[in-house]
Amino acid sequence: MATVKTPHSPQIVFTGEDGNVFAWTPVSKRQQQLTWSWEEHEGKKETAEDASIRLTHMWPAWAPDGNRIACFGMRGTSESHLETSLYAVAADGIESWELSGLSGGMPIYGNWSPQGNAFAALVQRAKKLSLEIVSLNQPGTITPVISGAPLFWSWSPQGDKVAVHVGGSHSASGRGRVVVVDTTSGQILRQVTDRPGEFRVPAWSPQDNLLTYVERDDHDDDILFLYDIDTGEKGPVTASDSNTVAVWSADGRTLAFSSTARSGSSMFPQVQALDLTTGRRSTILDEPVLGFFWSPQGDFLLYLTVDQQQNFLCWNRFVRTNGEKTEIARFLPSREQMFILSFFDQYALSHPPLAPDGSALAFAGYLVTPVSATTTSHVYYVSLDDPTTPPTKIAPGQFVSWNL
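^ that's the sequence the OP posted. Answer follows.
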């Protein structure tokens, strides 16, 4: 298994006011605007007509090398007059270019290949979701891969394939399946199962040709499997009767997984880990959580709890070596931040809440402690060297992500 890569210098990207994308660096505390609407009228109040033609940017994602950012652009206010595109922006903001038009499709999510030479976009087209891939070597050409709903995927470490779960669980629709697709041709190379269980993302190990997925067996039980892409062999990890998530550590040596207490719930009563080196399975968190993320070095788990009485979320850290738990920040998430947390297993590797060296956390929303006096969602930064320090307010913003 490969070792974890040397981390880049930490930077965040976020969507700020007026639908533009900004970058911020903790060392210099410098904020830089990366995109422009080009229809801004200085000193004038924006009219409804101005809003309908303004270019709005959303869902920025750092490329693995840190040299560019992909984001979606949208112009228009109604479905019949919607213009949408996928853009790449240089990290210094000097250059930007359109990778491909989306023909009015509504962009929902996207992530880079591990090599940064292609970008996969999830696009809403009519009543279907479509997974489409753009190669940086062929700008302007977008390749439809597979369509259906719901739809989740992960890249192979080599970036030549994606594993896709489309159509939901076998019990929900009977049309669900998990397949491996060639990213150049869009051809299905292998069907892993046509009986998927209750889960979202078929999680490809970042270092090996191992895939996790959930399958409904002949007794109508859901089983989380480890699947060897090369040989087609599979082995059970755990049984479940509700929604299951699995998240790999960056070195591919540990798999954290959990299942909700019941179908339709968003809370996970405990988190377990499988050590692939020893085969040992253990419980690492024994409390209800909304989501969890590995640190880039795999030394701690960042997780979210919910205060049901006061109705706020709380970021927490669990250190694996000594079992220490630390509360980091209490907050109410922005709409976009909540969307990320609701699908944290899809966003974990593409839009990390943790800096690439594990030194800091960033999130968007409203502080609970200390109480935020603003009605505008802000982007916050927390140094994990001293997590007792109050979060630092960076700027108004709805969405934030660290570089990889």
